[in-house]
Design goal:
heterodimer; A: mainly alpha; MetI-like fold; 2 domains; disordered N terminus; B: mainly alpha
């Protein structure tokens, strides 16, 4: 009895949270690593398939399967996807969507972060009557399905003359990014020592003075997290892009979908996959470069409420 | 009184407009107009619950709800189970933890459109996974869910899991790392096997992380739209139609605004059903703690 118990304890001690196990090979380790490797293959397979397909010629795509390696590597599909693939009447490839997305992305990121940082600042240090109620409504708003608000927003944008305009979409992104970003900035500012604000007030700084001269210079870490969150979120948006812009200024995701799912002509899978990778490249680069900060952005989103 | 803290009030105007006009105002507007017979343009011709009667008489809507139930049920259970398992495996002080975590999370950085198109290609009946296995010699192997009405929704599930499980894993891992070291020591001293410690002791202690993951996954399920549009366009037939797509088609394609408003009001109701119990729970916990 006693020895059986020891054996169990031994196994668990081997995997426990103590120092790294000295034995390189043990059964539990084998199970852990093979499971993780198997899972990693499920996660990596689509990326591999995308890359491999995009480097084949169409005859070769038709000969093999999605996993087969290209015999002759060609970058022709990439060039076509970027510069000459057609959607509707336009045949200038994804480059149009890319620049549209950039034009949407930059002002949206700047405006949404500017507004949300002011919100968070007001909520952290200058709370007025009703401020917390507004904040609660804001957080609940994050969960309302967008479809419920889409149409009335179309009407509002039409009334102010921004429906179909890139700036209309910028406003929409700023609105729907507001709950999470405001929460992010409110929590960050609340964690700062109150003495900082008091000292600045003694020195005669007001609402804006404290924000611009005292707080913003020390907000770099949280601003980076906000930028990561917004760049990936806005770049990946499809719904707002399709509802609030015209075909000429469709963002990249919408254009990508139109290129790949167009029913005309023969399907060029290699071009489609090249286009898909190109569209995913911006968030992927952000993800791999930012590393831990990306996770922090998610964690900030995860502790809503 | 009004002028006290004036700068702060002025600075909060965008927030107030967003909360009151957009989140409350626009939602209320849609709910109100779901009781009208609006077609191409919103009109105040009141028709009572007619739109809802019609909605629940429409096969496409019923099928959409069924699809959402299948997709949602599987997605919830599998992404939580898989996410927790992955987090627990990564928590074993293994080598390459960062590499594995990076691999499991990268699809979450990609859009649903990219996800949907990639898996459409992966599951292509002529060149996709089916062909891969057949080329290995198993000539009769069939795996082409997207062309089979009975299984298409599971093809979407495969893509959804690929994209979304990483998020659950990150939340669970954060939860695991928050567990007191002494709990592990105590369990070890008592000779409780590792897996049992996870399931019986640690899992119940992670209620916060689990509920957070549950709410995030559940609300993303109800919103699912781009993934369907990119991967299957709702087909074959009605096999992968979902409520969000019904709303969009009614409002922006079929010029049937009233139906769209009624269907989106139903979506709002679904979210409330998830959200209200969660809020009550959070309030109770906060009062306790």
């Amino acid at each position: 009895m006693n020895s059986g118990r020891d054996a169990v304890a031994d196994i668990s001690a081997d995997m426990a949270r103590g120092p790294r196990p000295k034995k390189a090979f043990s059964l539990p380790n084998f199970v852990i690593y093979s499971t993780l490797t198997l899972l990693a293959m499920y996660y990596l397979a689509p990326l591999y398939v995308m890359i491999v397909t995009s480097l084949k010629t169409m005859p070769e795509v038709r000969l093999g399967n999605v996993f087969s390696l290209p015999r002759e590597i060609t970058i022709e599909p990439w060039i076509k996807a970027w510069a000459t693939a057609c959607t509707g009447l336009n045949c200038d490839g994804l480059s149009r969507g890319f620049w549209n997305s950039v034009q949407i992305l930059v002002p949206s990121v700047v405006l949404s972060i500017a507004v949300a940082s002011v919100n968070g600042y007001a909520l952290a240090f200058w709370r007025f009557k009703g401020a917390n109620i507004l904040f609660t409504i804001l957080l609940f708003g994050a969960f309302i399905p967008y479809q419920v608000m889409l149409y009335p927003i179309v009407m509002i944008l039409r009334d102010i003359g921004l429906y179909g305009d890139v700036w209309g979409l910028v406003i929409v992104h700023s609105i729907f990014g507001m709950p999470i970003l405001t929460l992010l900035f409110r929590n960050y500012f609340s964690s700062l020592p109150l003495e900082l604000i008091k000292a600045a007030r003694v020195d005669g700084a007001g609402f804006w003075g404290i924000l611009i001269r005292v707080l913003l210079p020390m907000s770099a870490p949280i601003v980076v997290v906000a930028i990561i969150l917004q760049v990936t979120g806005i770049w990946n948006d499809f719904l707002f892009g399709v509802v609030y812009t015209r075909p000429d200024s469709y963002p990249m995701t919408v254009q990508l979908n139109n290129i790949v799912n167009s029913t005309f002509g023969e399907k060029e899978y290699n071009v489609n996959m090249a286009a898909t990778i190109i569209t995913g490249l911006v968030p992927l680069v952000v993800y791999f470069v930012s590393g831990k900060l990306f996770v922090r952005g998610i964690a900030a989103g995860a502790v809503k409420g | 009184m009004l002028f006290r803290n004036l700068s702060s009030k002025v600075a909060s105007i965008p927030m107030a407009v967003t909360a009151l006009v957009i989140f409350i105002g626009c939602s209320a507007w849609t709910v109100v107009y779901s009781f009208t017979g609006s077609r191409l343009l919103p009109k105040t011709r009141w028709v009572g619950f007619d739109q809802y009667d019609r909605l629940w008489d429409t096969t496409r809507w019923i099928v959409s709800i069924e699809n959402l139930a299948i997709y949602g049920g599987c997605m919830l259970v599998l992404s939580l189970a898989l996410g927790f398992t992955m987090a627990a495996l990564l928590d074993q002080r293994i080598r390459f933890e960062n590499t594995f975590r990076t691999i499991f999370l990268y699809p979450y950085a990609l859009s649903f459109v990219v996800t949907g198109l990639t898996w459409q290609w992966m599951l292509n009946p002529t060149f996709g996974l089916q062909k891969v296995v057949r080329d290995m010699g198993y000539v009769d192997f069939t795996f082409a869910p997207l062309t089979d009405g009975d299984f298409a929704i599971y093809g979407v599930l495969l893509a959804g899991l690929w994209q979304g499980t990483g998020l659950v894993m990150v939340i669970m891992l954060a939860g695991l790392r928050g567990i007191d070291e002494d709990i592990w020591k105590a369990a070890r001293v008592d000779g409780i096997p590792k897996w049992k410690t996870y399931l019986v002791i640690v899992l119940p202690m992670m209620r916060g992380a689990i509920i957070t993951a549950l709410v995030l996954v559940a609300t993303s399920i109800i919103k699912v739209f781009d993934l369907i549009v990119a991967q299957t366009q709702g087909g074959p037939g009605l096999a992968t139609e979902v409520p969000a797509k019904y709303v969009m088609d009614m409002m922006f394609r079929n010029q049937n605004l009233g139906q769209g408003f009624a269907a989106s009001t139903m979506m709002l109701l679904f979210v409330m059903i998830i959200l209200v119990p969660w809020t009550l729970y959070e309030f109770r916990e906060r009062r306790r703690g």
